[in-house]
Amino acid sequence: MKSYIVAAARRALGEGTVLDLGCALGNDLARLAAAGLRPLGVDTSSEVLRRADATLGSSVPLIRADGSALPLRNATVDGWRIERFLLHVEDPDQVVAEVARVVRPGGFLAIFEPDYSTFRVDSEVAPAGSLPARLVAVRHPTIGRRLAAMVDRHSFRVDDIVTEASHGYRVDALPVDAARIIGRALPVDAT
Question: Nearest Cα to 85, choosing from 128, 45, 38?
């Protein structure tokens, strides 16, 4: 999915400044820069931004800010990239409104957000062989299915929707303590 977003941004913009909201450690900022775009990273964590800066060698500007109130002027960014971010924020609609304020007219927006109501984790312990990933704690587990309507409300045009089926096959390989979560959700057989 990451390559798809970079290719789509490159196709839409040619060149330009692409803001990566929730940039974390900067892996995708490096990918955007390698594609000839000018990335700008935004995250709320000072520690994450410090680590991103160390990795990127200060070659990419980084801003510590909340996605719902950015310290940027209106229409100053050519494109915007959001991945697995809106599912965590308090008000996704406010973040998309802020995106609409900051992206220039005709700019580009690429969003990748999961719909955890359809994501399942294979399991031998659960009836029917799988556990719903809604056990993973996020604020908006169905944000993926609400994106098209949300961006439309803020005057973005949807050019493409890409769906992806995701399955986790090893509970111990998930990026959360799934065994603890599953243990709380399912009764343990004491016999």
Answer: 45
**Contact status, residue 67 vs residue 98, Cβ threshold 8 Å:** yes
The helix/strand/coil state of 48 is helix
Query: Longest C-alpha distance within the chain, in Å?
Result: 65
Strands ordered across the beta sheet of 62-64: 62-64, 38-43, 17-21, 77-83, 103-112
User: Using an 8 Å Cβ cutoff, are 65 and 44 in contact?
Assistant: yes
Reported as a single tens digit per residue, the pLDDT across 153-166 is 988 887 777 665 55
Neighbours of 107 (CB within 10 A): 22
Q: pLDDT by residue (tens digit) across 83-106?
A: 888 988 999 999 999 999 999 998
Q: How many helices (H) and strands (E) does the chain have?
A: 6, 8
Distances from the Cα of 93 to the Cαs of 6, 21, 131, 134, in angstroms? 24, 14, 29, 21
The model's pTM is: 0.73
The C-alpha atoms of residue 63 and residue 88 are separated, in whole angstroms, by 19
Sheet holding 167-168, edge to edge: 130-132, 120-122, 167-168
